[in-house]
Design goal:
The protein is α+β, with helices and mostly antiparallel strands. It has one domain: Cyclic Phosphodiesterase, Chain: A (Alpha-Beta Complex), CATH 3.90.1140.10. The chain contains four helices and nine strands, in the order βαββαββαβαβββ. Strands 2-6-5-4-7 form a five-stranded antiparallel sheet. A four-stranded antiparallel sheet has the order 3-1-8-9, covered by helices on one side. The chain is globular, with a radius of gyration of 17 Å. The two termini are 20 Å apart.
Amino acid sequence: MRAFISIELPKEVRDELWELQKGFKNLAKVKWVAKKNYHVCLKFLGDIDDSKVKEVKGALKKVKFTPFEVNLGEIGVFPNESHINVIWVGLEPSSKIINLQSDIEDSLYGLFARAKKFAVHVTVGRVKGVKDKKKFIEKLKSLQVKKLKFKIENFYLVKSELTKEGPKYKILEKF
């Protein structure tokens, strides 16, 4: 089973992120993430055996977690403006999410390799091609994301099934 650990986003945040795609019409070919699938991936586990799921759940239950507030942040691209693969939106302040991600990494020590790099973001689209890179970057820099504030009260172990229609996510456990 393919799985990851994530923070789910409230409806009003997903609605705001969905509006961003309107700004990129005719500027690029983008595979937009389905509104219902927006999340912050804290750790991608990859393909794991069903037998390992119980171990993962046990480890994650030990993570000390206190709810905290964040808001939507800046919009950007990965890996950089010269080579655009992903359009993302950050969350601020990122420090509490980074701490949570680090605690999750610690809890899974010995079960999974530690992530080499972690960036707090929500992927909103995967760029397949840009018609005019200069116009694309200008548009990107002109977009303003509403600084919607919301509370993160849980994190989740999620099963991901890849289908022709796109990924289908199922929450396996809430922490």
